[in-house]
Amino acid sequence: MACDLVVTGDVVLTDRVIPKGFVAVENGQIVAFGEGQGPAATERHDHGAAFILPGAVDAQVHSRSQAGQEGFAWSTRSAAAGGVTTIVDMPYDDGDLIASADRVRAKAAEAEALARVDVALYGTCHPDEGPARVAEMVAAGVAAFKFSTFGTHPTRFPRIPPQMLHDCFAEIAKFGLTAGVHNENHEVVVAATERVKASGITDYRAHGLARPEIAETLAITEVYEIGAATGCHAHIVHCSVGRGYDLCHAYRAQGFRTSIEACIHYLVLDEEDHVRRLGGKAKINPPIRPRAEVEKLWAHLAAGNVTLVSTDHVSWSEDRKTDPEMLKNASGVPGLEVMVPLLVKGLLERGLPLTWAARLLADNPAKHFRLSHRKGGIDIGRDADLAVLAHRPRVYDAAASGHNVVGWSPYNGMELPWTVAATYLRGKTVFDGEKVLAEPGTGRYVTPLGASV
C-alpha cells in the first residue's frame, strides 16, 4: 500500500547527510527515510539537490509584545516562510503576563485559533506570587519557564530577585522543566546607563556602553549558581559574549544541568557595521557586540558549546525603532523568515557541517522543551515537519516577501545563497517557496511529554 507522501532531496540528519535521499510520510508522521526514491506514495515531491532539513523549532519568539501589532497569525506566517514549524512563545505579552494556568490556557486557545504552525508556550512567575503557580502552569502544558535578572518593566517584564529566583527554580526542578533567564545584571545596567546619559553619547554607541559584557557574565554566573543549588536545569536564553559560553561549558563539565542559546543576530550582526548603520533597527538586549566577539561565538558553535540557535523574534512597529537617540528605541528585531537560511549560510561559509543546523535548530530545542516525542528531527514516529532549502540565491527584503507584518529588518539587503523552497507541517505543505498556504488555525498547541493538558 502506498504511503501519503514522499519528499526527496539531500536529507540532513543530526549525524550525517543522505545524498539523494527520501522522507516518507503517513498520517502526518515520518514512517521511513533513507537513500533512494523511497516507497510508493500517493504524492511525491522531488526537490532535486535541495537540502531536506527537519522543521526548525524556534526557542524564542515574542508574538504579542506590542498590542495590536503582530500576533500569532503574522508571526507564524513568517515562521512558515522561514522553515520554522514550531515556535516557543515568550510569556511577556503587552498587558498580559503569562503567570497562571488560566492565562496559559487562554493564550493556547488564541494560538490554536490563529497560528499557521505549531506553538509551545513559556510561562513565568509574577513577582508578587513567586513559585505559587508553577504546578498549575505545568499542568496547563508550558514547555519551560522564563525569568529576567533585569527589570525592563515592573509588571510586563519584571526583574525576579535572586532569593525569589532560587525559590522558583527549586519548584520547577520538581517537574523536570527548564528555567530560562534573560541574563543582564540589573544594577550594572542601571549604573552604566546613567553614565552614558551623563556623557552625552546618544548615537549607536550608547546601547553597548549602557549594557557592558560584565552585565551578562555576572548574571549568567548567578543563574548557574542558583541552578546548581536547586538542581534545576538553568538556561541562558541569549548570550552575546564568548565568556558566557565558557561559563556554561565549565558548569556542564562539573556535572550541572546548564545550557545556552545563541540568537541568530549575535552570529550575523556586529556593532561596527550593522549597529552603526542601522541604529535602533539593530538595538537588542543584550546588545550586538563587535565583530571579534561574533567570531568567538562561531568558535564556540564549532566546538559544540552552543546549545540552541533562536531568533528572539519581535516585530516592533517602525516608529519604535527609528529614534535618533539610541536608548529611546525598543529592543528586539524580527528574524523568523531568515533564521534557517542565515545559519545554513554561516555554516557553509565556515566549512562547518550542515548537521549542526539539524541539531541547533531542531533536535536540541525539541529535547530542551521535552517535545522530541513529536518534534525536532527526521526520525520514524515524529511529526513530518520539514524545511526544504534550495540553492536559489536572493537578496533579502522583508517587505517584498509579504510574509512579515513589518517591512524593516536588520537583515534587509543580505545575500541568502540557500532559501526556503518549501515547508511541511505534519506532512502538509504550509509554504510552497513563494506563498504561505497555511491558514490561521492550522497550527496546534504542543506540550511536553507527560503534560496533563
Structure report:
By secondary structure, the chain is α/β, with parallel strands linked by helices. It is built from 14 helices and 17 strands. α4 packs across α7 and α7 runs parallel beside α8. The longest helix has 18 residues. 56% of the residues are buried.
Instruction: Kindly provide the radius of gyration, computed on alpha-carbon positions and rounded to a whole number of angstroms.
Output: 21 Å
- Count of β-strands: 17
**Helix content range:** 25-40%
Instruction: Please report the distance between the alpha carbons of the first and last residues.
Output: 35 Å
As residue ranges, the low-confidence spans are: none
Tally of individual helices? 14
Q: What structural class do the secondary elements suggest? A: alpha/beta
Strand order in space, largest sheet: 5-6-9-10-11-12-13-14
Portion of residues in beta strands equals 15-25%
Query: Largest sheet, if any?
Result: 8 strands, parallel
Give the overall shape, derived from the CA principal axes.
Answer: globular
Q: Determine the mean pLDDT.
A: 97
Which features would summarize this protein structure in a list?
453 residues; alpha/beta; 8-stranded parallel sheet; 7-stranded mixed sheet; 14 helices; globular
Q: Gist?
A:
With 453 residues, the protein is of the alpha/beta class. Helix content is 33%, strand content 25%. Strands 5-6-9-10-11-12-13-14 form an 8-stranded parallel sheet.
